[in-house]
Write a structure and sequence with these properties.
Number of helices: 11
CATH architecture: Alpha-Beta Barrel
Largest sheet: 5 strands, parallel
Strand order of the largest sheet: 4-5-8-9-10
Order of helices and strands: HEHEHEEHEEEHHEHHEHHEH
Oligomer: single chain
Number of strands: 10
Number of domains: 1
CATH class: Alpha Beta
Helix content: 25-40%
């Protein structure tokens, strides 16, 4: 078991959320390792988007899993004296039939499991899962096709999926738990400040704490969209519950493995959170 609290306490240079050539990342695992070693990272975890039961351009294919594990073992042998490497996946929660508790993941030698919601059921056909995690233009198009442009219902569905995922368990870190706020905020300006939205975030956060999960402060959108996940407006929850935190870059490019870390640490410090 990975002691994330101890790692975060003793190191400022780590990353436990990263995507490479085995999913939608833009470089090989070795290129990420070389960059991490060059920057003095102490710990680095690989989290390709997990295989899922249907085709998705962002997710690892089932048949590529053995190659992923083999490449990890090769890199651990080659670079193990310079950096602590970890094998993981960002496991998509798709409902009771697919998530971190699925027996498939028990067959893999994963060091830890990160789990996230990227898909929710279509309002047209509930058996069809729709990726709502892409760019806003794609999201806006899907809102019309699959969700009747009902943004409140989509947000509620996202957080309902998140609560089901948390209750199902089987993972260690929850990924970007309020990420729907980014696209929802573009679709309906100010939605994240509405009382019902804040209540959903608070309810989700309480469930995270009740289930002893590690929260990542995801820095991927900080440079281009001036926000982290969770959004800064919800940092008061991190303070209130003394939540166990990791700062993760969700990097898809080696040069971005440390993107936004210093800025995020400064933001957290203004809320009394010193890492």
């Amino acid at each position: 078991m990975v002691d994330f609290r101890e790692i975060a306490k003793n190191s400022k240079l780590y990353n436990f959320h990263s995507h490479t050539q085995f999913c939608d990342g833009r470089a090989t695992m070795e290129e990420f390792v070389v960059e991490a070693v060059k920057r003095g990272f102490t710990h680095y975890g690989f989290t390709p988007h997990s295989p899922i039961p249907f085709s998705s351009p962002c997710n690892m294919k089932h048949e590529d899993v053995p190659a992923y594990i083999a490449d990890y073992k090769r890199l651990k042998n080659a670079y193990g004296d310079s950096i602590n490497l970890f094998l993981s996946m960002e496991i998509d929660y798709l409902g009771e039939h697919w998530g971190a508790t699925n027996s498939f993941f028990d067959t893999l030698p994963l060091d830890y499991r990160l789990s996230s919601v990227h898909f929710i059921p279509s309002f047209v056909d509930s058996s069809e899962m729709v990726d709502i995690d892409g760019n806003f233009l794609s999201f806006r198009k899907k809102m019309g096709i699959y969700f009747g442009n009902d943004i409140e219902a989509v947000v509620r569905s996202f957080y309902a999926q998140s609560l089901s995922m948390i209750e199902a368990g089987g993972f260690d870190i929850i990924g970007h738990f309020d990420k729907i706020g980014h696209n929802a905020g573009h679709f309906s300006e100010g939605i994240e400040r509405e009382k019902w939205y804040i209540e959903l975030v608070e309810q989700t956060f309480e469930a995270i704490m009740d289930n002893n999960l590690i929260i990542e402060v995801n820095t991927k959108a900080l440079k281009d969209h001036c926000r982290t996940f969770p959004n800064e407006q919800f940092y008061y929850l991190l303070t209130k519950y003394s939540a166990p935190l990791l700062i993760n870059s969700d990097a898809h490019y080696p040069e971005l493995i440390n993107a936004g870390r210093e800025e995020t640490m400064s933001l957290l410090a203004t809320h009394g959170i010193n890492l």
